Structures are given as structure tokens and as C-alpha cells.
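Practice problem 4.
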């Protein structure tokens, strides 16, 4: 008789991220994928990373390969504080906790705040992994109404009064999945409203450096006067995701509890990747690297926009991001993008259906496309094929 594990009932209700089911197909030769929210591997600064790794393993082996501090490798905390200071914020290294990717920061904060049945407010749509995390903690996740400028402040105010949430989660810049950005007025309002009600606001901002046009906006955290805003960022999208180095800028009131939660989770993030990232930043390599990224990704974004204009039916509405990694597409009501994906895969093109990004299970007529990971020369071809699928099925 085979072993039958007795899974916790709430975990059986959490779907797997569909991107992982697609991966074996996406890696086949000749397949054009707009599915994964991944950077272009050709942008990875391999030589710089190799040189840095060789040097630190030569000079600091006893530190780098040993157990480390839960809060993070001290040079990495300093480097991440330096990186965040470019956003108009002024964290000290002591206010930074290094985490294993941005998702771990979100999970740890949920561990600290969420009991089964507690409410979290999120934009609609929002990052699907955050919805998975909230489900795993058995939160009641309530969507906020949103438009092209982000969440609606009047809806946030009303739902705080109705639901008394434990936290609010926002992606202010080039949001995954829609690519939209919260405007200045609503950034100020987010800090003011949540601060006035004493509710934790998680500001998840890993895409802000990837701006190809327009002006940078200040972080919501810069308008925080009560210490209720946690600012999260990551090097996954701007350096390379395999390092899994992210940072949480944590208020003093949460810092020690966050450290305890991380000790339980993994003791500390791997020190070698932290050391690589800290050296990359401290040697002045990050800003030139980001400039190169923006040049490459800006061309890919424009290529995808031009191809959509040429090949998509007029009934498909898209967002117009100024940066980030994604374009969001809305089909007419009644369309089912899961079925569209099946038809697209037969023609060796892929995207991500939008339903998984909605807390209330809506969004069946939406889909997300990533432009950073595809080869520039494949974008127009892939969009033309996808346009044929749309004409045939919408």
C-alpha cells in the first residue's frame, strides 16, 4: 500500500502557478513565449559576476561559506540600503533585512500579521504569487477597484472601514501583471489613508528601475509619516533572478518579529549571492547595467506595441506601460483566455491567462504578455501568430 499524505485542506485549494506547467513546452526549439515574467538571460552580467565570485572566494571564504546573520550579510545590507536610497528614501543598513527573493518578504509579513480569516486588500489584478501566499495563510483577500492609474483611493477608504484589514498590498510601478503605475496623487493617498487607519501597507516595487520613458515617481514610503509602510525591492529583475537577493525596508516596530520569522523560515539567505550583489553595487556596476537593460527592453516594448497595432483585432484593449516587463490585454466580455492559450500553444506561441491575477476569480477575458524574455526578432512573428488566434477565436 502506498503512502497517502494527509495534506492540510486549505493547501489542496491553492492552484499551482500555470507557468510551471508550461515550462517543458516553452523550452522547445522554435517556441515563441510571452509567458514568463523573466528577464532576458542575454543581459546577465556573467563576466562581472564571475570575476566578483572568484575574488570573494579567494579572499573571504571563511565568511562567505559559513553560517551568516539572519538580517543579512552586513555588506549586502549596506549595499541594498544604498540602492534604495536612489529612490528618494533614506534607510539605514540596520533597517534592511535581506530576504530570499521578494516573495519571501511577503510571506514573512503574512506570517507576522495574518490569522485565518483576516482580511488583506489587494489591487485587481495583482501579482498571482501574492494571492497564493495569502491563500496559504488562509486570509480573506478582497480586491480593490483599479484603473489605469492604480487603485481607487475612495474604494480603499471604504473597504478599510468595512473589512478592517490587516494589510494592504500594492505594486506601485509597472505592476505585474498590468504594467500600470500608481500616479502621484494616489501614492500620497495610499500612505495617508493606511497611516490614518493604522494598517500595514506593503509597497512591492521591484520594477521601478526599468523605466523607458516618462519620469520616476517617489515611493509611497516617502510619504509615510507613521511608520506603517514596508518597502520591498529585489535585484531579480534588474540583475539576475537566480541570485534571489531582495530587501525589505522594515519599520522598527516590525523588525525583530521579522527576524524571528526569517529564522524559522531559512535561518538566513545564502551568503554567496548576497556578497556578489553587494560587490556589484559597490563597484558602481549597477547603474550602467540598468541603463543597458532599459535600452534593450525599451526596444522590445516598442516592437511588441507596433506588432499589436498591426496584427491584433481592434476589440483587444491593451495597457500602455512606460516600463517594466508586461503588456496587459483585455478581450471582449465572454472570451476565455484559457481556451485561447490552448489554441495559441498549437501554433507554438504562449502567454499567461489573466484569471490567476484576480482575487475574486474574474478576469477570464484577460491575459498578460511579457516582452523582456522573448528575442527581439521573434516578437513581431509571435504577435502575428497570436493575432491570427485572436481573430479566429474572439
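Answer key:
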Amino acid at each position: 500500500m502506498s503512502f497517502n499524505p494527509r495534506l492540510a485542506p486549505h493547501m489542496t485549494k491553492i492552484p499551482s502557478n500555470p507557468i510551471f506547467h508550461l515550462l517543458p513546452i516553452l523550452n522547445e526549439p522554435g517556441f515563441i513565449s510571452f509567458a514568463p515574467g523573466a528577464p532576458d538571460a542575454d543581459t546577465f552580467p556573467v563576466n562581472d559576476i564571475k570575476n566578483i565570485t572568484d575574488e570573494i572566494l579567494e579572499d573571504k571564504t571563511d565568511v562567505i561559506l559559513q553560517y551568516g546573520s539572519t538580517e543579512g550579510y552586513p555588506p549586502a545590507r549596506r549595499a541594498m540600503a544604498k540602492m534604495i536610497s536612489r529612490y528618494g528614501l533614506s534607510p539605514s543598513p540596520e533597517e534592511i533585512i535581506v530576504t530570499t527573493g521578494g516573495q519571501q518578504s511577503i510571506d514573512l509579513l503574512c506570517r507576522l500579521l495574518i490569522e485565518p480569516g483576516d482580511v488583506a486588500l489587494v489591487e485587481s489584478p495583482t501579482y498571482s504569487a501574492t494571492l497564493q501566499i495569502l491563500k496559504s495563510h488562509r486570509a480573506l483577500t478582497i480586491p480593490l477597484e483599479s484603473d489605469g492609474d492604480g487603485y481607487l483611493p475612495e474604494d480603499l477608504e471604504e473597504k478599510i472601514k468595512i473589512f478592517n484589514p490587516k494589510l494592504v498590498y500594492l505594486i506601485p510601478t509597472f505592476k505585474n501583471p498590468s504594467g500600470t503605475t500608481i500616479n502621484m496623487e494616489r501614492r500620497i493617498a495610499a500612505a495617508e489613508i493606511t497611516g490614518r487607519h493604522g494598517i500595514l501597507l506593503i509597497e512591492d516595487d521591484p520594477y521601478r528601475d526599468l523605466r523607458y520613458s516618462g519620469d520616476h515617481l517617489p515611493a509611497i514610503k516617502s510619504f509615510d509619516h507613521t511608520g506603517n509602510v514596508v518597502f520591498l525591492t529585489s535585484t531579480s529583475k534588474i540583475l539576475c533572478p537566480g541570485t534571489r537577493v531582495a530587501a525589505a525596508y522594515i519599520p522598527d516596530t516590525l523588525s525583530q518579529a521579522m527576524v524571528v520569522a526569517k529564522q524559522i523560515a531559512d535561518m538566513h539567505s545564502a551568503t554567496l549571492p548576497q556578497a556578489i550583489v553587494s560587490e556589484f553595487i559597490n563597484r558602481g556596476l549597477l547603474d550602467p547595467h540598468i541603463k543597458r537593460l532599459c535600452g534593450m527592453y525599451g526596444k522590445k516594448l516598442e516592437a511588441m506595441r507596433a506588432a499589436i497595432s498591426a496584427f491584433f483585432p481592434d476589440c483587444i484593449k491593451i495597457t500602455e506601460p512606460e516600463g517594466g516587463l508586461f503588456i496587459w490585454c483585455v478581450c471582449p466580455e465572454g472570451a476565455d483566455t484559457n481556451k485561447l492559450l490552448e489554441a495559441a500553444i498549437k501554433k507554438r506561441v504562449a502567454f499567461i491567462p489573466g484569471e490567476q491575477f484576480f482575487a475574486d476569480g474574474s478576469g477570464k477575458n484577460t491575459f498578460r504578455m511579457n516582452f523582456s524574455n522573448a528575442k527581439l526578432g521573434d516578437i513581431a512573428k509571435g504577435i502575428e501568430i497570436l493575432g491570427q488566434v485572436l481573430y479566429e477565436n474572439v
